[in-house]
Amino acid sequence: MKNHRLPLIAALLMLGAALPVQAFDLVGAWQAARDYNADFAAARAQRDAGQEKAVQGRSQLLPQASLSGNYNYNNPLQPKTTQDAYGRPVSDMHYENHGYSVNMQQPLFDVGKYTGYKKGKIGTELADTTFDAAEQQLILDISQAYFDVLRAQDTLAATRASKKTYQNLLEQAKTAFEVGTATITDTHEAQAGYDGAVAQEISDANNLELAQNNLKRLTGLEPAGIQTVRDQLPLVPPKPAGLDAWVDMAQRNSLKIKGAEQNLQLAEQTITEKRGNHLPTVNLTAGYSDNISNQPGTLPSAQHTRGSQVGVTVTLPLFAGGGINSQVREAVALRDAARDQLESTRRQVKEDVRKAFLGVTNGAALVRAQQQLLVSAKSKVESTRLGKEVGIRTSIDLLQAEQAYYTALTTLANAKYSYLTARLALAQSAGQLQPDTLGEVNQLIVR
């Protein structure tokens, strides 16, 4: 029976192998990562959890109501005879009592609960900021992984072309040696060049596999479906064009700075909360109770009691062993740390903006220069090949020209992908990296 299944299994495997791989571009990779990436899913869950902080903080200022009930069965171990309120003998046997009560408490003055309310609001805002930062970071990570695959593909293609050139030269050197027109040194040089190209091909293939695995880990997509970038990139200058304008934009909109500011606000509220422990708390209390007891010897009027009460409770702390003062000093120190961290974040963002801005402006100039270098390298290959045919250039000259051309190809690819990454990094540093931004870049670069 199993032998009959083998052809069917083989046919299914061949059909699966023949199915086309889903093609995807930069936006497609991002959309897949939003649903697939576990880190981003965790960030989304953290954001949802942070939304509850505002609700929890607000609840401390609202009335707190509770319902309680009780039931007791009393069974004396040594019953005795007593007299009731009228002087009649009563046997002290078992009896029951039960009841319930409803209580409500409303804070009137409580610094700790009020600061808890404000901290809850800030905590929810911080959760939103953290999630937005995670979203921007995922966009940048996906773009970097996408470009890393393309860079590795271009590098491997250039290396394989270089290896083919070395292989042709090696064959020519061997033939020339056999017919006596070249020395064994030429063959050894060609063999060394070919062996080096083989080793470089193995290294580049390994780098490509690593880059593909990283992209698949982030998106769940098969890297074979990746779409390449057009040869001639539109080198759009950053808008605004000045570095100072980008720095100002980043100081206003950077999510890193915004998160550090919110952490400072939380630290300041904590100081207020700890200092408030020195102050009194005032609460409005109200309640209603209903109790029934059949205890022998009690008056009938006392067997069923009901009542309500309304009052104000004031609690003033007198001495806490120095703990409150210590908590205040701790909160002040943490506030100072948060303030210093905010300043450090501002400086780091400024440096990130400068680095990314130069990566865009200088990167565009570098791409143009490398494009021109590639044209020159290609012209040199053609002229050297022609010179070899007429006898004024050697095979070594042609090999060197072709190697320079392949090097120019690889350098141009690196310059293109570095420029594109810098554009996205600049938008992230200024707090402007959104899915729409990624879509605009995608339309410019994808074939």
What keywords describe this structure?
447 residues, alpha+beta, Outer membrane efflux proteins (OEP), two-stranded antiparallel sheet
Tell me what you see in this structure.
With 447 residues, the chain is an alpha+beta fold. The chain has a single domain (22-71, 92-445), classed as Up-down Bundle (Outer membrane efflux proteins (OEP)), CATH 1.20.1600.10. 68% of the residues lie in helices and 13% in strands. The chain has eleven helices and six strands. The chain has helices at 2-18, 26-36, 38-59, 111-179, 184-219, 243-253, 255-275, 300-303, 323-390, 395-429, 435-445; strands at 64-74, 81-83, 89-91, 95-109, 281-293, 304-315. Strands 1-4-5-6 form a four-stranded antiparallel sheet. Strands 2-3 form a two-stranded antiparallel ribbon. Helix 2 (26-36) packs across helix 4 (111-179). The longest helix has 69 residues, at 111-179. The protein starts with a helix and ends with a helix. The mean pLDDT is 87.
Structure summarized in a few sentences:
Strand 2 and strand 3 (89-91) form a beta hairpin.
List the topology elements.
Layout: H1 2-18, H2 26-36, H3 38-59, E1 64-74, E2 81-83, E3 89-91, E4 95-109, H4 111-179, H5 184-219, H6 243-253, H7 255-275, E5 281-293, H8 300-303, E6 304-315, H9 323-390, H10 395-429, H11 435-445
Antiparallel strand pairs: 1-4, 2-3, 4-5, 5-6
Helix pairs in contact: 2-4, 3-4, 4-5, 4-7, 4-10, 6-9, 7-9, 9-10
